[in-house]
Amino acid sequence: MTLAAALGATACANANGEQTTGVARDPLPGERRFASLTQLTFEGENAEAYFSSDGERLIFQRRREGEYECDQIFTIGIEGGERNLVSTGLGRTTCAYFFPDNSRIVYSSTHLASGECPAPPDMRRGYVWALYDYDIYTARPDGSDVQAIFSSPGYDAEATISPDGSRIVFTSTRDGDLDIYSMNPDRSDVRQLTDEPGYDGGPFFSPDGSKIVYRARYPESEEELADYQALLADNLVRPGVLDIYVMDADGSNRVRLTDNGAANFAPFFHPRGEKVIFASNLHDPDSRNFDLFMINLDGTGLEQVTFSEEFESFPMFTPDGRHLVFASNRHGSHEGNTNLFIAEWIDELPE
Questions:
Q1: How far apart are CA 68 and CA 89, in angstroms?
Q2: Could you tell me the strand order of the sheet in which 147-150 lies?
Q3: Which residues contact 124 (CB under 8 A, 6 or more apart)?
Q4: 197-240 per-position pLDDT tens digit
Q5: Distance CA 52, CA 50 (A)
Q6: Helix or strand or coil: residue 304?
């Protein structure tokens, strides 16, 4: 029996009537990498889900009207069940990740600056992302023993951890630009890895820890640079065009993988370390129709993985490569309903 069939066979709901056990869904035509597909969440906005190292749990951010005004961090088993709140419930949170030994979690939160939910960005300047005053925290997997490990005046977020647990990589405005940094888990040895003007973010280590994949946009004209810097001064960034890059773990040997004028983001390494999976609206750069794609580390071999006409992003493989989790608007109960899906992955396709 497949994972999807096993989960769908025991579907149930919680006291609020919300589905809590995964439901089997049919992959869409063209999604030949998916042996099966399971929808794991059903209401609200659920995104940025990442596996524990044993592949048994997910940590993700969620917002639903009537629960919390802003995104908070939860964990859930891959078969569904009740969600566990592991952030403080205050402020806004983002970008959670398990330590490799599953002894702790890391996430970012604004609760040190204020327990209130920060205001959404002003869209009169176009589609922008807000750079909230996040700081980076660790906690036990149940949310206890919260400890701040990085704080600066401004944006400190997007933290993930090397496979051996020796380094944390993250994005910060600590030096006046959106750059990628790494540090030891004990907060020591903070190193700046990128320094070109522009947005560098969303970093993840390769399976062997030797490389980092990330998204970036480097202004290509004086006008674009001025717009970027003006937005940054107001704690905003415009993500209309982003590209996927890979660099060595020390910041050297940067390689650009995409150059298509679209918003390419949320990259993650395939477990063999030879390819990167990411989200892109390359078929219509003015739309929110994002699909998942894979590409080789030299920028060749682009392959489309999902074929929904809606938003899909934030892919992550289990370490053994057997499953892929991602967020999608497919099967949404209402506009903006974003949910988590787990696919059984077919690595070797038939000829």
A1: 7
A2: 93-98, 105-109, 135-139, 147-150
A3: none
A4: 999 999 999 999 999 999 999 999 999 999 999 999 999 999 99
A5: 7
A6: strand
